[in-house]
Amino acid sequence: MKVKKALSFLMMTALAVTMLAGCGGGRGTEEAVQTADTSEAPADVEETAENESTEEAEPEEAAEATSAGGGIVGVALPWLGTQNWAEAEVMFKEQLEAAGYEAIIQAADQKVPQQQQQIESMIENGAQVIVVGPVDGSQLGSVLEKAKDAGVYVIGYDRLLENTTGVDGVVQFGSVKTGELQAQALLQGLEELKGEAPYNIELFGGGPADPNAPNFFTGAMSVLQPLIDDGTLVVVSGQTDFTQCATVDWDNSKAQSRMDAILAGNYSDIEIDGVLSPNDGIARAIITSCENAGQPIPVVSGLDAENESVEWVWSGRQYSTVAKPTNALVAETVSIIDSLLSGNGMPATETTANNGVIDVPIYELPPVVVTKDNAKEVFADDPDRLALLTD
Ligand code: BGC
Q1: pLDDT in tens, 137-165
Q2: Do 133 and 112 sit in the same domain of this protein?
Q3: Atom number of ligand 1 nearest to Cα 280
Q4: How many angstroms does the Cα of residue 70 sit away from the middle of ligand 1?
Q5: What is the Å distance from ligand 1's center to 290 Cα?
Q6: Could you give the percent of the chain with pLDDT greater than 90?
Q7: Atom from ligand 1 closest to the CA of residue 172
Q8: Are residues 310 and 236 in the same domain?
Q9: Does residue 279's CB lie within 6 angstroms of at least one atom of ligand 1?
């Protein structure tokens, strides 16, 4: 209680200072609060990470705090090579501008130094918040510390920011859950379309620098491994480690070459029944490889509900995908930015992930599996995708 009172008092002081300075909030004020908080109660770090600021604000304080508005927001995206990132570029611009912010949005073409430089220039250009979808989750430590020292808030978008204290929270779809859904859909498809077990399958992972990729794989293997162990599933190539299955840079053509090689080396006289794919681009590459090799189309999972894959799911060429709507993730991010720049700090959340250095508050949305059976339901409020579901 003592800590909470101290927090409230300091928040009011910090807000008064912010308002006098005439700027829309900022980490400087928040840090004053956090420093005081930890010095009063060093053992309470976890609670602090989950953040109490919105809970603690008295109604009048909160009302006063939300009056700030405006500000410069940087958005650093890893690339525009899959539909979700291309959508993010457009939707961040629309949603940030509609909320009254100036948006600086850049994509890094999968290159770490380019992304570091883009974030540096966002700091120099006065961004008060920087949203980061990292090319490599662990390679931005020093530039993010620099952002933190400059009083800039940093929000991880879709991917975790690892090995740095320069991150205030991460907004994402459950990544382990996504992998579980992919594997469950694969099993369902095998049972539906490929007769009795055992089933011949192969496994693919995403880009090893992306912290989501091992999580997707771990989630999927938690479902598949017991069935590999009992012989229901046979990974004919024997390649079951993430490092063997990963696809550098999420590059579809690398996945297609690996599938070509696996088929040539292992499937000359047997059929492949299913493939775990970490996203839609790779799924289409795998399916194309199987078609080229004269194989019947295997059951293949996916992710992103990309337009082309939604069409393939509808026509039966790809078995499943997982929807993780970009507009919802961007909207969640913008609502956190609103909270930060109106002086209310990070919203409360019960979920945290350790990034190697700190427990990072996580704001998680649920991914949803899509097959032909539920596609119309899942996309009921998405007219663009719904329009693809025609015979
Ligand atoms: C995202 C996926 C995307 C992949 C490749 C992952 O981090 O979560 O939606 O397909 O990156 O861009």
Answers
A1: 999 999 999 999 999 999 999 999 999 99
A2: yes
A3: 10
A4: 30
A5: 23
A6: 82
A7: 8
A8: yes
A9: yes
Residues 109 and 124 in one domain: yes
Query: pLDDT class for 391, splitting at 50, 70, 90?
Result: confident
* d(CA 78, ligand 1 centre) in Å: 10
Residues 285 and 255: beta-carbon distance below 8 Å: yes
Task: Check residue 27 and give its pLDDT.
Answer: 61
Claim to verify: residue 185 and residue 272 sit in the same structural domain: yes
More confident residue, 211 or 14: 211
Beta bridge partners of 231: none
Sign, CA dihedral 71-366-276-388, equals: negative
Atom of ligand 1 nearest to the CA of 279: 10
Q: Is the pLDDT of residue 307 over 50?
A: yes
From ligand 1's centre to the CA of 160, what distance in Å? 12
196 within some domain: yes
Half-sphere exposure of 367 (CA within 13 A, CB side): 27
Residues 234 and 374 in one domain: yes
* 173 CA: nearest ligand 1 atom: 8
> Which atom, in ligand 1's list, is nearest to the CA of 178?
8
Inter-axis angle of helices 252-266 and 280-292, to 10 degrees?
Answer: 40
* Structural domain harbouring 200: 175-324+370-386
Give 48-97 pLDDT, tens digit per residue.
333 333 333 333 333 333 334 589 999 999 999 999 999 999 999 999 99
User: How many whole angstroms from 4 Cα to the centroid of ligand 1?
Assistant: 39
Q: What are phi and psi of 232, to 5 degrees?
A: -65, -40
The answer on 269 and 133 residing in a single domain is no
Pair of tokens at residue 6: 């101290």
Of 42, 67, 92, the one marking the end of a domain is 67
Instruction: Say what the pTM is.
Output: 0.85
CA 182 – ligand 1 centroid, Å: 14
* Separation of CA 11 from chain center: 31
Q: Is the CB of 194 under 6 A from ligand 1?
A: no
In a domain, 120, yes or no: yes
Give the number of residues written for the chain: 391
- 233 belongs to a structural domain: yes
Instruction: Work out how many domains the chain is built from and give that number.
Output: 3
The answer to whether residue 352 sits within a structural domain is: yes
CATH of the domain at 232: 3.40.50.2300
Helix 83-98 × helix 326-341 angle, to 10°: 40
